[in-house]
Amino acid sequence: MVGEARGARKAMGERWAGAASGAPAGAKESRHAARAIVSRPAHALPMPPELAPFKDVLAPALLAAAARRARRLGVGGDEVLVAAGTVTAAEAAEMIAERLGVGVADLDAMPMPEGPLAKAALRTGVIMEPMPGGRTRFTWAVAGRQVRRLARALDADPGLAGRVRLAAPDALAQRIHDACGEGLCDDAAYDLLRTRPDSSAATLRPARTLAFGAVLFGLPAALALVLVPDAALLALQAALSLVFLAWIALRLSGCLCPSPADPPAAADDRGLPLYSILVPLYREAASVPRLARALAALDYPPEKLDIKLVVEEDDGETRAAIAACRLPPRFAQVVVPAIGPRTKPKALNMALPFARGQFVAIYDAEDAPEPDQLRRALAAFRAGGPGIACVQARLAVDNGAESWISGHFAAEYAAQFDVLLPLLSAVGLPVLLGGTSNHFRRDVLERVGAWDPFNVTEDADLGVRLARAGWRTLVIASATQEEAPVRIGAWLGQRTRWLKGWAQTLMVHGRDPAALVRDLGPGATAALFLLTAGPYAAALLHPVFVAVLARDVWHGALGAPCVSPAEVAASALAYTTLIAGYGAAALSAAVGCARRGLPVRLATLATIPLYWLLLSVAAWRAVLELLRRPHFWCKTEHAVSRRGARQK
């Protein structure tokens, strides 16, 4: 142990000398951080226990400045040094162990806990092993202010030193991953299915559900159409129009309801909690450099950031791209073994036990969040009170001008995130989450079962599950820039997955309608039905309405006198629904673009009917996929637009 500590001191001294002289020594960000620390004037201050081991190795001015920054942030001085790249976590652990007179853990030789004990060790940073005589030995990934508590405990009980070994937090996490990764991944894939089977899309039988629906509703409707065709057709059309018009009214209400102002962003660095960011990546090597820059630009103390890049085991290209970036210490990889479905929610479940923060944010590979987004999310949590489980930031497309399909995508996102979701949040209705830029209370996320690995829109499902458990979601104005698909084929694959996932979500939560109404209440249940079944049914039936309109135009029947009151009512409902649907979509897109500060393109608004026909193609493809391969995840390709190429 003493030899290791001396080697650590020598390495730190050489690295510090190199940084001070301007010679290359690690990442550029780390050198700049070290210089920024040491450039501050030094004052005679008591040396905290976690900095005392470095007093003979690092410059006094640097240590004094690190102590001041630690007090300002409410962290340990060693955490300041590690975040700045001045020392590594392993060096800090060795030096602190020598100073306190305890051992350094040989992690490779230690048996690792499994199952729930592995997750507990990741959460607490402590592994307990029985010793002869009934005593316990502790391996402790100690850092920051925990060092002070350990120092006080050793002063009170000197015999404790023989039963404590220290390890670097990142080294302990990696060792647990290497030893228990397959078991943790098995839990990530199947824990929700085992513990709450009714909440998992894995237990759905879509063919049986659709057949049951056809028998329950289709046969009576077909019989009525044979016996009383005019009345049955009018009743069916009236029922569908009622659903569509209610959905339209909900969107129009969002146009009339101004978004509430966000509370001021949290400014007190000392009061900021540890924040974890999870970024699932699969075949995203081209996106890694830009993603790293976007996350490095976040206005949040690096000592309190814990960023996990979640990568599939066989994705060597993305892992190599991450290694080539030489990322600072707050970044770490979590490798996902090939167990269970290869989906984003499984990857997130795998990474969650390795996250150390009280709050967890989710970003995608192409995301560029506004720098103060974490602070604004925290302000929303605090202003909303303990009943807020999730804060959804708004998603905005920054390559809408690149193609016709990306232009429609940008307008649609503006309507969704700047018009509809703020309304749902303001009135306390369930929010179907957007898949990225979600910020969660970590304990609540775990309590509701985290993500369903078998639902291909895990975000929407989780939003409903949170609402059913009594938690609220807030929508804030902070935006995350995203890349929209620029090719119709890519858009079609992504939209098919979304619509399939909405159907899965509706089926999962509609298994027991009475329980759903008890959990949400009648009004929120009706709103959930409109938000999921409404758009889906509209997309499926839109070609029928267009076909009826085209037939009337072709035969010259458009505007001709009707022969019966039923025909008058049916025509009025059909044309009103179609025109109101187009109008509501155009208005909500225009209002959303105006609120977002985007140009309102007349060409986009004028071609909404054509865009809706593409949505219909995606909806029918989603039905077929739901029957044939319900859990298939169609991967959206990123970094292919000119926007991505410019910012690599």
Describe this structure in words.
- This protein is of the alpha/beta class.
- It contains 24 helices and 12 strands.
- The strands form 2 sheets. Strands 7-6-5-8-11-10-12-9 form an 8-stranded mixed sheet, with helices on both faces.
- The relative contact order is 0.10.
Question: What's a quick, concise take on this entry?
Answer:
It contains 24 helices and twelve strands. Strand 2 and strand 3 form a beta hairpin. Helix 8 crosses helix 13 and helix 15 packs across helix 21.
Could you name the key traits of this structure?
648 residues; alpha/beta; four-stranded mixed beta sheet; 10% strand; elongated
